[in-house]
Automatic annotation (TrEMBL):
<dbReference type="Pfam" id="PF07686">
    <property type="entry name" value="V-set"/>
</dbReference>
<dbReference type="InterPro" id="IPR003598">
    <property type="entry name" value="Ig_sub2"/>
</dbReference>
<keyword id="KW-1133">Transmembrane helix</keyword>
<keyword id="KW-0812">Transmembrane</keyword>
<dbReference type="InterPro" id="IPR036179">
    <property type="entry name" value="Ig-like_dom_sf"/>
</dbReference>
<dbReference type="InterPro" id="IPR013106">
    <property type="entry name" value="Ig_V-set"/>
</dbReference>
<protein>
    <recommendedName>
        <fullName>Ig-like domain-containing protein</fullName>
    </recommendedName>
</protein>
<dbReference type="InterPro" id="IPR013783">
    <property type="entry name" value="Ig-like_fold"/>
</dbReference>
<keyword id="KW-0472">Membrane</keyword>
<feature type="domain" description="Ig-like">
    <location>
        <begin position="117"/>
        <end position="220"/>
    </location>
</feature>
<dbReference type="GO" id="GO:0032589">
    <property type="term" value="C:neuron projection membrane"/>
</dbReference>
<feature type="transmembrane region" description="Helical">
    <location>
        <begin position="271"/>
        <end position="295"/>
    </location>
</feature>
<dbReference type="GO" id="GO:0050808">
    <property type="term" value="P:synapse organization"/>
</dbReference>
<dbReference type="InterPro" id="IPR007110">
    <property type="entry name" value="Ig-like_dom"/>
</dbReference>
<dbReference type="Pfam" id="PF13927">
    <property type="entry name" value="Ig_3"/>
</dbReference>
<dbReference type="InterPro" id="IPR037448">
    <property type="entry name" value="Zig-8"/>
</dbReference>
<dbReference type="InterPro" id="IPR003599">
    <property type="entry name" value="Ig_sub"/>
</dbReference>
Length: 300
């Protein structure tokens, strides 16, 4: 940039551009880009590196753990063709695309510019296994004529699933012609609820919650006539309601790195299951207590 000269009363005064308005002569990174990315297994990941004033220098992507050069410019320098550099002419952005990422691809990747000395910017990639969880026991016993009520929560997913399908065996039941089937899916909370009204023995079977890009979860449902096993589903259990609310809260407060919250959830879940067991066993305990008092009074 040429500094203009101003003539005043026969003298020539040179106007200098303030340093903060002068262009950088060396490449530098635009720090406004996102430096950490979380994706699920199989979902392509994109790390965006933006370099200003690059000039004739080259941009490379390097895997930090083994210092392996993945790309230089738009050329791939690894036999693993899942790694690719994306760049448009005239753009300041150099994007590393990782196709079909696996958990082992998690780690730090560096965007490096061939200045002297070299400059680099680190990016963190987290690849997680997203999975579904159906709340409650893995095996349920339902009295004939009662409702089947299943709630599925999708954990460890950075983005809400595009769909959640329910299966009975190998058949999708979201759009079943049976009647009395209601599926409510809430993407924001990553939950889906299946309600089957007035269940009959033919509704018995393996029920699977299958979200997009996530591992599925299954429960076995038995619809019985007259029997009343201890594992019978109770829709009015306060412990079950608390457990369901806790699961949804877990999804809301944490969609990426949930290690601490998952441990807390597992601990509280075990406590609530113990409380639920005590609720069911309470009648028996009271009965035994009354019987013991009666026997004691008759023996006096």
């Amino acid at each position: 940039r040429v500094n203009p000269k101003i003539e005043f009363s026969g003298a020539v005064i040179e106007h200098h551009t303030p340093y903060w308005e002068q262009p950088f002569s060396q490449p530098y990174f635009d720090n406004s880009t996102r430096r950490e990315m979380t994706t699920t297994v199989g979902q392509s990941a994109y790390l965006h590196c933006r370099v200003r004033n690059l000039g004739d220098r080259a941009v490379s992507w390097i895997r930090k753990r083994d210092l392996h050069i993945l790309t230089v410019g738009i050329l791939t320098y690894t036999n693993d063709q899942r790694f690719q550099s994306l760049h448009s002419d005239g753009s300041d952005e150099w994007t590393l695309k990782v196709s079909s990422p696996q958990v082992r691809d998690s780690g730090t990747y560096e965007c490096q510019v061939s200045t002297e000395p070299k400059i680099s910017q680190a990016f963190r990639l987290n690849v997680v296994v997203s999975k579904a969880k159906i709340l409650g026991n893995p095996e349920l016993y339902i009295k004939s004529g009662s409702d089947i009520n299943l709630t599925c929560v999708v954990l460890q997913t950075p983005e809400p699933p595009s769909f959640i399908y329910w299966y009975q065996g190998a058949h999708v039941i979201n759009y079943s012609q049976r009647g009395g089937i209601n599926v409510v899916t809430e993407k924001q909370t990553r939950t889906s609820r299946l309600l089957i009204s007035r269940a009959q023995p033919q509704d018995s079977g393996n029920y699977t919650c299958s979200p997009s890009s996530s591992d599925s979860a299954s429960v076995m449902v038995h619809v019985l006539n007259g029997e009343h096993p201890a594992a019978m589903q109770h829709g009015n259990s306060s412990s079950g309601s608390v457990l369901q609310s806790l699961s949804i809260l877990l999804v809301l407060i944490c969609s990426e790195d949930c290690t601490v919250y998952r441990m807390l959830y597992i601990t509280i879940e075990r406590i609530l299951r113990l409380v639920l067991f005590c609720e069911r066993a309470g009648i028996l305990i009271i009965g035994f207590g009354v019987l013991a008092l009666y026997l004691r009074s008759t023996s006096i």
